[in-house]
Amino acid sequence: MGNMVIRVKKKLVARPLLGVIVLTAACTCLQIPFWPTATPGAQNAQSGQDKSSIRVNVEQVNTPVVVRDANGEYVLNLSLKSFRVFDNGVKQELESFEVGGAPISAAIVIETSSRIQGLLPLIRPTGILFTNTILGEPGEAAVFGYNDNVDLLLDFTKDHDAIEKTISRIQTSTSGACLYDALSQAANVLRNRPASRRKLVITLAESTDTGCEVKRGQVLRQLQLDNITVYSIGLSLVAAEWHGPEKQAAAPMATVQGTFSLPPFPGSALTPLEVQQYSGNMNLMPFANWTLWGLKYATGTAHDPLKMAAAMTGGLYQTSFDGNSVEVAIDQIAAELSAQYTLSYNLARTVAGGYHKIKVEVVDHPELKARSRPGYYVGPL
């Protein structure tokens, strides 16, 4: 099956909020009228109900939760009674929970900027890891590539061969990185997947957006409204430089092989590597990039959209540097998805929509740490 490349227009279409909590896998909406004391002749012209009736929506909220012990190991033997959930500070009555969860619909978003060209040999073989460890037989995936544009390389399919081939043929293009646009387009296609599936965005990208059409707040709200969890594998520009082509070759030696024309560093013996460093002919670009990256974090000026997207949707962010890190990160995502609890509760509300904060606690086990999404958006009634 050949690769299908569809150029996606980078234009968002505004969607009206329909008064539902979109983080739910299923939603039951009830209209419960409040009946005041009747008066003779009081009648609603359309329905016969009093005009002062109050609409109350009862909606089911689902939230994924991961629990670890003091050693960082996943805890898989908890029951429904082990959890306490607060919605906007109000304790909720849990209706159900499950471990492992529903089949997965994943949008795999891969940066194709020319800046990560050196990492292509590490990215292309990962298709089989996605299909075998994360998706499994019931899972499905779509594949996006992005640089200055966002391309839908493969629409949703359960065909593992097609997914693996698409990722194995990833090519780099322009130097831009429209990360927020790519996340937004991934959310757009995930929105239409069945509500019974777990909806994920899995990114292999550097934590950079070069300023395209979609803004950070816009895409974060979109991901939360559509009940999408982001798992991010941060690609390292240092690693890309390291694995990429040399920017500068060493100058030819001016002396006979095995002899050196310069004095040694104090207290050390000269080697060919040290001569290159000494004479300024070694490619130091990876080290310069690493230093700049470290300074940004030390001064608090770093901007990490991947880490923020994962934290705001209850997902996981991992960085990568060495050749095995991408594989390890994918395995870690698969392990977390297998260990995930899904907690469900019914929420009755009579107010306008907005942001709801979620807090999850493990009862009588203070040594256990529960991680969930921090909250979600609801639409107005």
Q: How would you explain this protein's 3D organization?
A:
The chain has 381 residues and is of the alpha/beta class. Among the domains are: 57-100 and 344-378; 102-242 and 302-338, Rossmann fold (3-Layer(aba) Sandwich). Helix content is 25%, strand content 25%. The protein has 10 helices and 15 strands. Strand 3 (83-87) and strand 4 (90-91) form a beta hairpin.
- Terminal CA distance: 46 Å
Query: Helical percent range?
Result: 25-40%
CATH architecture label of the domain at 102-242 and 302-338:
3-Layer(aba) Sandwich
CATH topology of the domain at 102-242 and 302-338: Rossmann fold
- Give the biggest beta sheet: 7 strands, mixed
Give the low-pLDDT segments.
1-52, 246-251, 275-302
Provide the β-strand percentage band: 25-35%
Counting helices, strands and paired strands, the structural category is: alpha/beta
The spatial strand order of the largest sheet comes to: 1-8-7-6-9-10-11
Helical run tally: 10
So, the CATH homologous superfamily of the domain at 102-242 and 302-338? Answer: von Willebrand factor, type A domain
Return the average pLDDT rounded to an integer.
76
Query: Which overall shape is indicated by the principal axes computed on the Cα atoms?
Result: globular
| CATH top level class name of the domain at 102-242 and 302-338 | Alpha Beta
